[in-house]
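Dear colleague,

Thank you for sharing your sequence with our group. We've completed the structure prediction you requested, and as agreed, I am returning the results in plain text so they can be pasted directly into your records. Please verify that the sequence below matches your submission; if there's any discrepancy, let me know and we will rerun it promptly.
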Amino acid sequence: MLGVINDFLSGKVLIVLIVGLGGYFTIRSRFVQMRYFLHMFSVFRDSLRSSAGQLSSFQALMLSLAGRVGAGNIAGVGIAVTLGGPGAVFWMWVTALVGMASSFFECSLAQLYKRCDSEGQYRGGPSYYIQYGLGKRKLGMLMAVLLMVTFGFAFNGLQSHAVTHSLNDAFGVSATYSGIGLAVLLALVFIGGINRIAKVADLLVPVKTLIYIGVTLYVIILQIDQVPAMLATIVRSAFGFDQAFGGLVGSALVMGIKRGVFANEAGLGSAPNVAAVAHVEHPVAQGVVQAFSVFLDTFVICTCTALLILLSGFYTPGFEGDGIALTQNSLAAVVGDWGRIFISVALALFVFTSILYNYYLGENSLRFLLGENRKALLGYRVLVLALILWGAVEDLGTVFAFADITMTLLAFVNLIALALLFKVGLRILDDYDQQRRNGVRTPVFDAKKFTDLDIDPRAWPSDAPALKKAPRAAAVLPQTH
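Please find the predicted structure tokens below.
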């Protein structure tokens, strides 16, 4: 029964939600993810600045990448290619393209409706913009529960299972012992709260991402002459034009979108929880930064993994095995046995930061439901660590199906909320666009223009700072950037 429900929800409902509404957001916003693509890099540069006592936009980006760049980028891509063929990669790209628009709006709205807590720290996310933007507290509570169950529990179990079994394959380390070690290290970070989690992500995310991209690019460059033909195979297979993969068109579509959503999380309502904690001058600036993280996750890292697998010669149509083993053996086929060790170490780093991120999503949801309840928070931490240990030693086939179901329900609640708040999202985007057209280098949000919205005055004071005009030469740049 669980499998039937999962096939219907993640195989049909999820596709319509992610591609349909993501495409709608893209068209109505005049392709915001493309219009602002080059602008993303200047916003990213400016985001390195921090405000005293608050997380910088760069730290929030690293924290969201900690979650986006995880087991889905290694094991998830391997599963998608195994079950859907090369064409699954194309549908992962489509999911990411429209997902960039969804992520832009969900993260911009999270910034707009964020709240300042008793300690002066920002809190926000889907539950907050559902409550304060739509005025539906109960729906916001449902969203919080789904986030906590999906990320805090189910996804953490999956991540733990992936890394402990990978270490067992590469080094022969018992899954029980590696699970205990993982739980102890995570407990030390959990105790420090969001600031310690952000500092760890700040350190590990750039390192793990750059090293992984570097190694996979090395393998791809070794076979650069085959890359154009392989990219053509990916596109042909997606539509059934490649004879070897003609029977996998349906599987390519479903697996590409399911595993694409699992990898980049665009539209699930997860990234807005960390996007809201950053200090920025305008909500849209954080939306732009988070759209960039979707691009980096799927178009760069997932594509590197896919090409690594497809160019290695290890993968053949009808391959039977798990996604981790496929990626490990594909790298080993090109560079030797150290490739298996590298994938295991890379996966361990990916999973460690992903679990930190997933934990924080659950903690943020718990605070929304119960406020500053220390006993509940302690109980949540203990339960998360217990599930990490359980996931290390158990077969997670059933949990994977359960996670797919809750993931689809998350997408359903979040994307419907985004559709209902879309006009508000367009208003703040228009405000940002207008300031850019007027030559303002760094647009500033003025809460006085939005007095009809339920905005926290502590998070967005009405006395906005003076607008920062761009140099005269910048005014002649194309307005589409």
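Summary note from our side: The first strand starts at residue 115 and ends at 116.

Kind regards,
the structure core
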